[in-house]
Write a structure and sequence with these properties.
The protein is of the alpha/beta class. Among the domains are: about 5-170, Trna Endonuclease, Chain: A, domain 1 (3-Layer(aba) Sandwich), CATH 3.40.1350.10; about 290-350, no CATH class; about 425-520, no CATH class; about 575-790, 3-Layer(aba) Sandwich (Rossmann fold). Helices cover about 45% and strands about 20% of the residues. The protein contains 27 helices and 25 strands. An 8-stranded parallel sheet has the order 10-9-11-8-12-17-7-18, sandwiched between helices. A hairpin with a 2-residue loop joins β2 (about 60-70) and β3. α1 packs across α5 and α10 packs across α11 (about 325-335).
């Protein structure tokens, strides 16, 4: 038998895929999908061990089971982890499910949970040659009270075997289709040649390092400047390794739609050159939902009603006929089979070779794809993490959680219930949050409070609220406040889940700056440990960006265990095509801004006067932008300007960029915010953009939260200010300046205005292609340098 004709699947995924049925019903999720509570699980397991010791029998917890068997022409490799196994004369398999619901409301064991336990029982019988019947116990434990509800049954060996092989038979047709696709993928990946006519400068070397690092199972941190061809340089070697069965799946992770599109287009290009690999692009729920933002549930959405009854037919249809599962393809098949497009695309990802998606699907506890990253043990996946500089702040957001006073007040007012357990639970939370505001913030100048201790009382109150809210959502499915209750319910669950992660890498942050409101937040200071948990479950991760500077900093904060490789690719472009000018004679520190505005306006004018064309000017804030723009327009009314506004809709962004047209007859200057929507991911090639001015070293706004981060790293490694402010700020500068040169034929200039740019550590963070930077020496010097540069160009 072909040793690659195998099925690798977990017990949980197999059971869920085959046995699911009915509606998508978020209002019932608390009951249908029991929450994972680590401490509650462990409490039951400790209790069982004490009982076993007293009773003279054995109890094993967290028992990993891996079972392989041949069914028809497939080798099934099925693995899972039994929560508990009791060994006496016979054996008992225990599945433990934690919940925030009162266990008295649980009327019986879930069919899904019972099916998992049956699978473990059959696997255990076969692996350890146990005869006789198997006892099964499903235990539900309340996360707060630790009360349990237990449901037991006894299964004969033949019954377990028939049930187990029935699941294998039901999954067989999907496995067969998937194997045929994988066999075709392996052949075509091996035959595929590089899909472009020639390699860019340094591109071969980049791909070779990616290939070798991934093959060896190493992490790679690569700084690859614009023009290197990062997308194809990472995807091509990954696909080659996929075809050699070095990897089971590719995850291309990114933070922005434009980079997801680039990955999708690259895979489509390879498919046109003969590659037969299936890829899916995951779209956020709020964007792909057919229900127009209305409440999700069977009463309000025909795609949610009966979704699980139809979804497997939809999956079979799409994986039979499609290889590039773009958003439009997903939507077409979802409409055809009347299934939820969001849940459908997640299921389809299981049968794909490549998954293009946001970072959160791999790392965020709230959105993580559990079937890929939630199971214990390592998997042969490769993560290609594009624009990896964005992952630092995103990861802190993913691992933080907060509750606010105002939503509880508003929802209690809307419900108008009298002395119900739910109202009492909400009232207790409101009292607690008001008291904490009064006790910690009243009478002090600061509107913040920081603590290293977890709020155990608040956790208990939120646990009571989630139990009451869970029951309310089941009974009041058509109530007008269901959306608000659902949001608050999951906010509370998120807070409670994060409470289990709380350690020295966190601080409790109480924010009372908003009038009549208070926020209590678990603030993640250092995301490296939690990121490393996901990185440890995959074979290799490649972090790449044009601005991964300094590489050591990113390795530290992004969870590398220490043996990850570093790579810095030189720019493929002629350095003579870029002029970098530093005006370090102007202070743009906050205290000096009012006095320096005229000098900044004059410097910008001297810079853009060197050649008619399109220019961007970046500032650290909208206020700073507006003040300098007013001064600039007053002094130079003949120069046309455009300004970025806050919360620009997508259509306005497109109109804004369209104004920067090729071969302009007069100069146009765009005033923008550093780190905003126009400072990265924007590609205005050729003469659509010929220059950029960056005003300031990009320091993030000084906030209480960022100061806490600074204090943490100062104690950890003595680099607090650099980690919290300097490196994130300089990364924004490099991204903004990188908008100028996008292709080999591009010619442009960059002006950096700030007295700090030529001081340490900033000048040490300049990329190699800036080594020929020039000092401006004033307004006249800027004009002279730019005139000479454009004359040469």
């Amino acid at each position: 038998m072909d040793d690659r004709k195998t099925i690798n699947i977990s017990v949980g995924d197999l059971v869920e895929f085959i046995l699911r049925s009915g509606d998508i019903d978020p209002a019932y999720m608390g009951a249908k999908r029991m929450q994972e509570g680590i401490s509650a699980h462990q409490a039951v397991q400790r209790r069982r061990k004490k009982e076993a010791a007293a009773g003279g029998y054995a109890y094993e917890s967290e028992v990993s089971l891996k079972y392989s068997f041949v069914y028809k022409d497939f080798l099934y490799n099925i693995e899972g982890r039994a929560d508990g196994i009791i060994l006496s004369d016979g054996f008992l398999i225990e599945e433990i499910k934690s919940t925030y619901r009162p266990v008295r409301d649980i009327g019986g064991a879930s069919a899904i949970h019972m099916a998992q336990a049956k699978c473990y029982a059959h696997m255990y019988r076969e692996l350890f040659h146990r005869d006789g019947d198997a006892a099964i116990r499903i235990t539900y434990v309340n996360c707060e009270s630790r009360e349990t509800a237990e449901f037991e049954s006894v299964c004969e060996g033949g019954e377990l075997r028939d049930f187990f092989y029935g699941l294998a038979e039901s999954y067989y047709e999907f496995a067969l289709m998937d194997h045929e696709r994988a066999a075709e993928r392996d052949i075509t990946a091996g035959e595929m040649v590089f899909p472009f006519e020639k390699y860019r400068k340094n591109q071969r070397e980049f791909m070779a390092v990616v290939y070798n690092a991934a093959k060896k199972g190493k992490n790679l941190f690569a700084q690859a400047p614009t023009g290197t061809g990062k997308t194809i340089s990472t995807l091509f070697p990954a696909v080659k390794l996929l075809g050699k069965n070095e990897f089971e799946k590719i995850f291309y992770l990114t933070a922005k739609t434009i980079t997801r599109q680039a990955a999708q287009d690259t895979l489509l290009l390879m498919s046109r050159r003969g590659l037969r690999a299936r890829a899916v692009t995951l779209t956020a729920k709020e964007k792909i939902c057919f229900n127009g933002g209305a409440a999700c549930g069977p009463e309000s959405c025909r795609f949610a009603k009966g979704h699980f009854d139809r979804v497997n037919r939809a999956i079979k249809d799409i994986i039979t006929n499609e290889t590039n599962l773009t958003r439009s393809v997903i939507e077409d098949y979802a409409k055809k089979h009347e299934v939820c497009p969001f849940e459908f695309e997640l299921d389809a990802a299981y049968f794909c070779d490549a998954v293009i998606c946001d970072y959160n699907y791999a790392f965020d506890p709230r959105a993580q794809l559990k079937r890929f990253f939630g199971e214990p043990g390592a998997r042969d996946y490769i993560l290609l993490i594009d624009e990896a500089h964005n992952l630092v702040d995103r990861a802190r957001e993913m691992f933080s959680a907060a509750v606010r006073l105002e939503p509880f007040v508003a929802l209690r007012r809307a419900l108008r219930e009298k002395k119900t357990p739910l109202r009492l639970a909400m009232t207790d939370i409101i009292k607690y949050l008001r008291n904490i505001r009064e006790s910690h913030l009243s009478g002090t100048e600061s509107r913040y409070h920081v603590s290293a201790a977890a709020p155990s009382e608040l956790n208990a109150l939120l646990t009571e609220f989630t139990a009451c809210a869970d029951g309310w959502l089941i009974v009041n499915r058509s109530h007008a406040s269901v959306p608000e209750m659902t949001d608050l319910y999951f906010t509370a669950l998120d807070f409670l889940r994060t409470a289990e992660l709380f350690d020295s890498r966190y601080k409790l942050f109480i924010d009372g700056t908003a009038k009549n409101d208070v926020t209590v937040k678990f603030l993640c200071l250092d995301p490296s440990f939690l990121l490393s948990k996901t990185l440890g479950k995959v074979k290799s991760s490649v972090f790449f960006s044009a601005t991964l500077t300094p590489l050591g900093y990113f390795k530290n904060v992004l969870g590398d265990p220490g043996d990850g490789l570093k790579l810095r690719i030189p720019s493929p472009f002629d350095t003579d095509n870029l002029l970098v000018v530093v005006e370090n004679g102007i202070s743009v520190k906050y205290r000096d801004r009012a006095n320096s505005r005229p000098a900044i306006a004059d410097s910008i004018h001297s810079f853009v006067s060197g050649k008619t064309g399109n220019y961007f000017v970046y500032f650290s804030s909208y206020d700073y932008l507006s003040s300098v723009l007013e001064d600039f327009n007053g002094r130079y009314p003949d120069v046309e300007t455009l300004a970025q506004t806050q919360d620009m809709p997508e259509e306005e962004r497109e109109i804004f960029l369209e104004r920067f047209a090729p071969s302009p007859e007069r100069t146009l200057v765009g005033f923008l915010v550093l780190g905003g929507i126009f400072s990265e991911g924007i590609d205005l090639a050729a003469d659509r953009l010929i220059g950029a001015v960056v005003v300031g070293v990009g320091l993030p706004l000084i906030t209480a939260e960022r100061n806490i981060i600074s204090d943490y790293y100062q104690e950890l490694n003595g680099q607090g200010f650099d980690y919290a402010y300097v490196y994130p700020g300089m990364n924004k500068v490099l991204q903004a300046a990188g908008r100028v040169i996008r292709k080999e034929t591009d010619v442009g200039s960059v002006l950096l205005i700030d007295g700090r740019f030529l001081n340490s550590p900033y000048v040490g963070l300049f990329p190699p292609e800036w080594s020929g930077y020039r000092r401006a020496g004033g307004i006249a010097g800027i004009k002279k340098l730019l005139t000479e540069f454009w004359d040469r160009a």
